[in-house]
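Q: What would this chain look like folded?
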Amino acid sequence: MDKWRYKLQMFMRGRNGMDSLGRFCAYASLILILVSGLLLKLPALASIVNTAGFLLLIYGYFRVFSRNIPKRYEENRRFQKKIQLLTRAAGDKTHKYYKCSSCGQTIRVPKGKGRIQITCPKCKNTFIKKT
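A: My prediction, written as structure tokens:
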């Protein structure tokens, strides 16, 4: 057993491995493939959804076995940033989020204050937004 584990470790050395984007691809492809099985009455749509699921699975495995780690790291970072923005905006009912136009810093301001002047804490740029 240890011999196989060692061989797998040696194979995966220098490769990207599983990250959050890879897990998302795996779960999304599983869901798409299962949904395509439920669409038996619409064979054309089932075929398209099934193909999309398998392509997503292939892309996920490509990411896992890729040796271009900096590029996969950057893809994962962008994915995590988008997910963070989606979950933050959906979960926070008392604050609104804005991006500074000059430096890109995300600024959190309270909701329901009307038109306010927002000062970026990073670059001191000021802009007026409605909360």
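The first strand starts at residue 95 and ends at 99.
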